[in-house]
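Dear support,

I submitted the protein below through the web form. The confirmation email said the job was done, but the results page showed an empty box. After a refresh the structure appeared. I'm attaching both so you can tell me whether what I see now is the final result or a partial one.
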Amino acid sequence: MLHQIKALAAAHAADTVALRRHLHAHPELSFAEHRTAAFVAAELRKLGLEPQACAETGLVALIEGQPGGPTVALRADMDALPIQETNDVPYRSTTPGVMHACGHDAHTASLLGAARILNALRTEFKGTVKLLFQPGEERLPGGASLMIKEGALLAPVPASILGQHVFPKLPAGQIGLRSGRYMASTDELYLTVRGRGGHGAMPELNLDPVLVAAHLIVAAQQLVSRRANPKTPSVLSFGKVIANGATNVIPNEVYIEGTFRTLDEPWRIEAHQHLRRLCEGLADSMGAVCELEIRRGYPCLDNDPATTARVRAAAEAYLGPENVIDLDQWMAAEDFAYFSQAAPACFYRLGTRAPDGRFAASVHTPTFDIDEAALAVGPGLMAWLALQELHA
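What the results page shows now:
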């Protein structure tokens, strides 16, 4: 079976590249993936599959092998980012200000390629492969949570779920994975500090919200440095501060946006409480008012140890042990975390850097691109991992 999958992956490699280039040239933002979903559905129907809509622009399809086996789910996300692409390539984005800067085009193309391979082998395995093409990974509440609510993991229920994500730090031909807790939770913070503005030359008549906001930003960092367990990774960052006054005008209010991330769910809840008390109490002590909105985002992403061990063994058989790399924990977030809470899961990274160092630009940048040699690896590996899960 291994040789069959590799042969099919090689045979479909050029088509997988063409699929990815089409998707890359026609990106759509989160929860607006209408053309993308229609394109994917049409490709699935070419295989004789009947995709069902889920979470409006998501799709679920089943590849049914011989009766009597379990179900494994494979997931790809389809949305793009609000970034203007600067790459000068034939397949560059044709949509101004929108770009597949996180590799979701490669994820979708890889899963379509895996579907072709698995569909060709459906008489040779027992069980069902559930294909999840997910919208809105880049925006709260996350398409994964919506698909789960709409029953994407029901009828049939998968025994495990696998997700693949590009990784420019590794060369094409390698993958990286980590057992246990891998990625952080993420929450969005929105603060409004209200005081009393006025002339900058007469601070005694005003209640300066800029000064209060400055104290808040500094004091909030104590949540990480003094409240969190030093062994618990935590990040509190403020990336947007608007104090719309002037050189001689103290504004009435200051608006702040930030993010809080951690790898510990109980501490996450506790930190929210500490942050709320800090903001309200400190502002009150200085005569101001602080309103804090915490938009709860994605949970921590956990890779099930048993599933990850099977994925590692299968990947080593497919790629060679030297091409399966251990990863460190990462404070970025992924809504695949919702799937990891609903079923035994493994989320692994697909190397996309070229041997000569090209395609090393980070995700979420206007120069991100991949070595398309990775597309000769991703679909076949996904198909192989799925079949190994069915045999587990």
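Response: this is the final, complete result; the empty box was a page-load delay. Residues 2-25 form the longest helix (24 residues).
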